[in-house]
Design goal:
The complex is a heterodimer. Chain A has a five-stranded mixed sheet, with helices on both faces. Helix content of chain A is 45%, strand content 10%. Chain A has two domains: 96 residues, no CATH class; 281 residues, no CATH class. Chain A is an alpha/beta fold. By secondary structure, chain B is mainly alpha-helical. The longest helix of chain B is centred in the C-terminal third of the chain and has 23 residues. In chain B, α3 runs antiparallel to α4 and α5 crosses α10. Chains A and B meet through α18 and α19 of A and α2, α4, α5, α9 and α10 of B.
Chain lengths: 537, 194
């Protein structure tokens, strides 16, 4: 036996809480996302409206009726059947205090909670912003009427040269007209005023507006217009799965590209190319490749440093891609590309690359479906209408260091899903273990691996074309024991990426060489080429 | 007997070193910075001010060239001639190097826009630029002090090592050449009254 007021309150609170939970509004992050103003408005709304309802609907008083579940038993004489059949029924009766009712304080709290939940469901930051602008939007337009044309012609400007004399002559009858000093007529308005005239009856004005509305509507609301609307609606209804998939990928941050480099180098212990934190850790790295690092992972660290410098370092210009879409797979076999070409799915799954790559390819399929849907509905999406080819946003490369005299490059064909991709394999001599090395050759290898058409030479260098002469001149100028500081300014005209021998011959210059001068140009040209060859979905 | 004497000599003194000289090796750099610091501290401020005014003015005017290397060579020649005329010897050569490097490094510390703003705002533009450079050098010195240097102010050996280490790192992390950084710090520390 429960009072109807209590039952109603609890049912409403439960219903609104369920809706709020289903829509995710009761998650902790949703509460954290509330700004101070919205939270204040919500709380005020709940307290004021909840209290008003509690007071004026007398929710705190005892219920006049109660509901009772009676099952097969007989109902009391003063009870009336409410709902149910012969076996299970609920009856309603007059409450004289025997039914369960929440206390007034509990009812008050329930009312406030109910409106707090309602507020959470219906009010967000945007709604609060809109509410704040209501008074401005409700302001009445004071220029409701057409303005009165001025009867008096505009007087000639008293500053017109010589007009005072002519006006005086005209007034005394010595001149027949004022000529150019005559008062200028105000130019007629270019457009007729369609607002209400000062002497226009309201009904006439209303009829005129209605007629104008009908005229405009008749011009637009043709049968073709409604047919087009219906066609677009049907097409978009058919494409609901595509639209849902598009939204799902946006929310899930599905990769827009998938680039994988398989290398036989071991994973360095403090690799920056990890899924978490790579954005922060690759934003700024030192200019100089760490040559003092020894041990088995020295080659790996140098390789990673160069990849980060070329692709993601943000010191000079925006990164060429997202590090989350670029994976280095350490410790791959030397036959990585051959294995990849032989059984791509197995190889990719074994190295943890399959899921990422298929997600990117899946995103392309959704993009193609969306483009098709747009074509059917006649919508234009500008740049989004262009869906890049798989080879533009998916790349597979193998970087193998092994004892050999010269680098060798080979392309492998990889069949993946219904796409044919080219995997590039680069076999290079091992990284020099000498501490005083510039590793300029590694820059060339890595750059050509990531952007296949990249080339850097004297013509592209900021140091000038005559590399040999500049190098010789600088070498001569750096001999001497005086003015050691001033002499070093000449080093800027030596580009180590073109003529590494000049610096390599002087190991003591490695620490004082201004790498940034030419590294900036090298990275800039690399990224230009990379962006020519690659794209993101 | 002679052969034995030669063998004994090389055994005691070691074999003559081969290969090119390495004046920019880490220990040689620190030693040079220490000498430069000592030269600045040993020279009276008036002499330094005269050298700075002369070398700085010529570097900014007669030595100006579209080719950076020509300007470097010209500034170095001017500084050498100045020291020869003053008969300053190696001490003059050391502080003149710091001054010449500082003059050439001005572009790294002051952008064209900042220099133009100073020219517009001040009646003594050269003085304003000098004050602004001094302020930036001071900031660099504070940065060095806070980041790595734990040296006493009169320990030039420690200071030289700290300056070199800080400037190698600064060159790697930022776009500031080692020589510009060293000249700025050496000048600031060497000319600040202790």
């Amino acid at each position: 036996m429960i009072g109807t007021k209590t039952l109603s309150t609890l049912a409403l609170v439960g219903l609104v809480a369920a809706v709020a939970r289903l829509t995710g509004l009761l998650r902790p992050d949703a509460f954290l996302a509330l700004d101070g103003r919205t939270a204040f408005v919500l709380a005020s709304f709940a307290v004021v409206v909840g209290t008003v309802v509690f007071r004026f609907w007398r929710v705190g008083e005892r219920s006049a009726h109660y509901l009772r579940f009676v099952g097969r038993r007989d109902a009391e004489e003063d009870e009336v059947h409410c709902v149910g059949g012969d076996r299970y029924r609920v009856v309603i009766g007059e409450n004289h205090g025997e039914a369960f009712d929440l206390g007034p304080r509990a009812q008050h709290v329930a009312c406030v909670a109910l409106f707090l939940l309602l507020g959470l469901v219906t009010l967000d930051r945007r709604a609060v912003d809109l509410l704040a602008t209501v008074p401005e939007r409700l302001e009445v337009d004071t220029s409701e009427y057409c303005s009165l044309p001025s009867d008096a012609p505009a007087a000639a400007s008293p500053s017109d040269p010589g007009c005072a004399l002519i006006r005086r002559a005209y007034a005394l009858g010595y001149a027949k007209d004022l000529g150019s000093c005559a008062p200028k007529e105000r130019e007629a308005s270019q457009t007729a005023c369609t607002r209400r005239q000062r002497d226009e009856p309201f009904l006439h004005f209303a009829w005129r507006r209605l007629r104008e509305f009908y005229r405009q509507t008749r011009g637009v609301a043709t049968a073709d217009y409604f047919a087009a609307l219906a066609h677009e609606f049907e097409a978009r209804t058919d494409g609901l799965a595509t639209l849902y998939a598009t939204e799902r990928e946006l929310i899930a941050s599905t990769p827009r590209a998938s680039h994988h480099v398989f290398t036989n180098l071991p994973e360095p212990p403090d690799s920056v190319m990890t899924a978490r934190g790579c954005l922060e850790r690759t934003r700024h790295v030192g200019q100089r490749v760490e040559s003092g690092v020894a041990g088995a992972t020295r080659g790996s660290r140098i390789f990673e440093h160069i990849v980060v410098q070329l692709m993601f370092e943000g010191r000079y210009e925006p990164a060429a891609g997202s590090c989350r879409e670029f994976q280095i797979h350490w410790g791959a076999p030397t036959s990585a590309c051959a294995d990849l070409a032989r059984s791509p799915e197995v190889f990719l799954a074994a190295h943890g690359a399959g899921e990422h790559l298929h997600a990117a390819l899946g995103r392309r399929k959704v993009a193609l479906a969306l483009r098709e849907l747009d074509a059917r509905t006649g919508r234009e999406r500008g740049a989004r209408a262009v869906v890049p080819a798989p080879e533009e946003f998916v790349s597979l490369s193998c970087y193998i260091e092994e004892p050999r005299a010269a680098p060798a490059r080979r392309f492998w064909t990889v069949r993946l899903e219904d796409q044919t991709l080219a995997a590039i394999e680069l076999r290079v001599p091992p990284t020099s273990m000498g501490g005083d090395s510039l590793h300029i050759d590694r820059y060339g290898y890595v750059a050509s691996l990531l952007a296949r058409g990249f080339h850097y030479g004297a013509v592209l260098s900021d140091a000038g074309i005559d590399v040999a002469a500049a190098g010789e001149s600088v070498s001569r100028s750096l001999v001497g024991n005086d003015f050691l500081l001033t002499r070093l300014y000449g080093l800027e005209s030596v580009d180590v990426f073109v003529a590494p021998d000049v610096i390599a011959a002087r190991a003591d210059l490695l620490e004082v060489y201004p790498y940034y001068v030419h590294l900036r140009n090298y990275v800039h040209l690399f990224r230009l080429q990379y962006e020519r060859e690659h794209a993101r979905l | 007997m002679t052969t034995l004497a030669v063998i004994v000599y090389f055994a005691v003194h070691g074999a003559p070193s081969s290969g090119p000289p390495r004046p920019y090796a880490a220990d040689a750099r620190a030693a040079y910075v220490r000498e430069a610091l000592a030269a600045l501290q040993a020279t009276d401020p008036t002499t330094l001010a005269q050298a700075k005014a002369y070398i700085g003015a010529v570097s900014q005017s007669a030595c100006t060239s579209a080719f950076a290397r020509l300007r470097v060579e010209c500034t170095m020649s001017v500084a050498r001639r100045y020291c020869a005329a003053k008969k300053g010897g190696s001490v003059c050569s050391l502080y003149a190097d710091v001054i010449a490097s500082r003059a050439l490094a001005e572009d790294y510390f002051l952008s064209s826009a900042a220099r133009y703003a100073l020219l517009q705002q001040s009646r003594d533009p050269r003085g304003a630029i000098e004050r602004e450079l001094r302020r930036m050098e001071g900031e660099l010195a504070v940065d060095m002090r806070l980041s790595s240097c734990r040296c006493a102010t009169d320990d030039t050996r420690c200071l030289a090592l700290a300056i070199d280490g800080f400037c190698v790192a600064a060159g790697d992390e930022h776009d500031l050449p080692w020589q510009a950084c060293v000249a700025a710090l050496t000048w600031f520390i060497g000319t600040t009254p202790r």
